[in-house]
Amino acid sequence: MKYDVTIDKELFSVYPEIRLGLLRFHADVKAPDERFWDYMNAEVLPQVRSCVEGKEWSEIPGIKGSRSAYKAFGRNPDRYRVSSEALIRRVRRSI
Question: How many domains does the chain have?
Answer without folding.
Answer: 1
